[in-house]
Write a structure and sequence with these properties.
The chain is α+β, with helices and mostly antiparallel strands. It has helices at 9-24, 27-33, 38-47, 65-78, 80-84, 87-99, 102-113, 230-259, 276-308, 312-344, 356-365, 371-384; strands at residues 136-139, 145-154, 162-168, 174-180, 186-189, 203-212, 217-218. The protein has 3 domains: 9-113, Butyryl-Coa Dehydrogenase, subunit A, domain 1 (Orthogonal Bundle), CATH 1.10.540; 136-219, Beta Barrel (Butyryl-CoA Dehydrogenase, subunit A, domain 2), CATH 2.40.110.10; 226-384, Up-down Bundle (Butyryl-CoA Dehydrogenase, subunit A, domain 3).
Length: 394
């Protein structure tokens, strides 16, 4: 694959806006038919957007996190599934950046610049909790490793060139093994049946004695032993997806009311768009959305500031800022996508229009991790100065 190399933040945002406009067309049909977006993902790879966080010394644009968040917001406003698929891609690029050896960084950053995609195989079902990772990276011949386990919710794995697998070694330390999609013993099962984000193919990955060379394993446990932004960046992108879903839904609701809705007979208005009660509701929803957009930008800037001067204090500020934005955006996404039907009326519920995909996407995505725990950490930080814990969900 030949991929464009994006050189700066401005170019990245221009490319993202153009792709979002293209992806918006056909998003409803892809969701309704559960038509997997292989062609669109190839466009995304060829555009160079998947390599925008490659460090400048390796030939990348190394864009600000504010730019990356805006890229995800734009994509999610068009198609929430397409935006979700590369979220883990960027999280595991960060692992390479933070924990990779010079040789590993050189190899994988070249792969990214060539348009290669990273998937993920991290979550497991039936375990005690999210941190109970039972996939094992055991010793193999000649210093190599062997992977065994089963992963679920493996968003992006079906479309990936490389699948980062979260596993534990014999010493129980957390590692990430970067495994080629066609590795022997690796099977990706397209069994995702979620009501929302239907085309992410977030299915199952089975690992049966998958061989892994030693130079494809990175020590992820070291990430959380020092001040880090791994969780903050991952959650920032989830926040951007929520904000994008809400923005896309509000825009489609406004277009529907302007072009397809009839005014309520008691309003005295000539058109639905002139109904004062609808005007009031759209104003309320716009206030809610703009607050989430502003919190997203503030959180991204706080992460960028922490990247420039990473300490326990700056990392904590970044995690809290992202937690605030994520908690607000989750509420906004569900409220705005639900209100779409309230303002658009009975016809908006028709399956043929598939406007309910916005609510299904929001409701599904906001279940990713509970906002209630983010609010807990925010409260502890504000009241007692307690820094948030170091993990990948905060």
């Amino acid at each position: 694959m030949t991929a464009k190399v994006i050189t700066d933040d401005v170019e990245a945002l221009t490319v993202a806006a153009a792709l979002a406009d293209e992806f918006r067309t056909g998003a409803a049909a892809r969701d309704a038919e559960r038509r997997l977006p292989r062609a669109e993902l190839d466009q995304l790879s060829a555009s160079g957007l998947l390599a925008v966080t490659v460090p400048a010394e390796h030939g990348g644009a190394d864009v600000r996190q504010e730019t990356l968040a805006e890229i995800f917001r734009l994509l999610a406003s068009a198609d929430a599934s397409l935006a979700q698929i590369p979220q883990s891609h960027f999280a595991y690029v960060n692992v390479i950046r933070r924990q990779g050896t010079p040789e590993q960084r050189e190899f994988f950053f070249a792969e990214l610049l060539a348009g290669r995609r990273l998937g993920n195989a991290q979550s497991e079902a039936g375990t005690r909790d999210l941190q109970d990772i039972r996939t094992r990276l055991g010793p193999g011949p000649d210093g190599s490793y062997v992977l065994n386990g089963v992963k679920h919710y493996a968003t992006g794995a079906l479309f990936a060139d490389w699948i980062p697998v979260l596993a534990r070694t014999e010493d129980d330390n957390l590692q990430v093994a970067y495994v080629p999609r066609d590795a022997p013993g690796l099977t990706v099962v397209d069994d995702w049946d979620g009501m929302g984000q239907r085309t992410t193919a977030s299915g199952t990955v089975r690992l049966d004695a998958v061989p892994v060379p030693a130079d494809r394993v990175l020590p992820h446990h070291l990430t959380f032993q020092v001040p880090q932004l791994h969780g903050a960046v991952a959650q920032l992108l989830h926040t951007a997806i929520d904000v994008g879903i809400a923005g896309g839904a509000l825009a489609e609701a406004a277009e529907f009311v302007r072009t397809k809705s009839r005014p309520w007979f008691e309003s005295g208005a000539e058109t639905a768009a002139e109904d004062p009660l609808l005007i009031q509701r759209f104003g309320e929803l716009a206030v809610q959305l703009r607050a989430s957009e502003a919190l997203l930008r503030e959180a991204a800037r706080t992460v960028d500031a922490a990247r420039a001067d990473l300490t326990d204090e700056s990392a904590a500020e970044a995690s809290i800022a992202v937690a605030v934005a994520k908690a607000h955006a989750a509420t906004t996404a569900v409220e705005v996508t639900g209100a779409l039907f309230e303002v658009a009326g009975t016809r908006s519920a028709l399956n043929s229009l598939n406007l309910h995909r916005h609510w299904r996407d929001a409701r599904t995505h906001t279940l990713h991790d509970p906002a209630r725990w983010k609010v807990q950490h925010i409260g502890r930080y504000v009241l007692n100065g307690t820094k948030p814990p170091r993990h990948g969900l905060l």
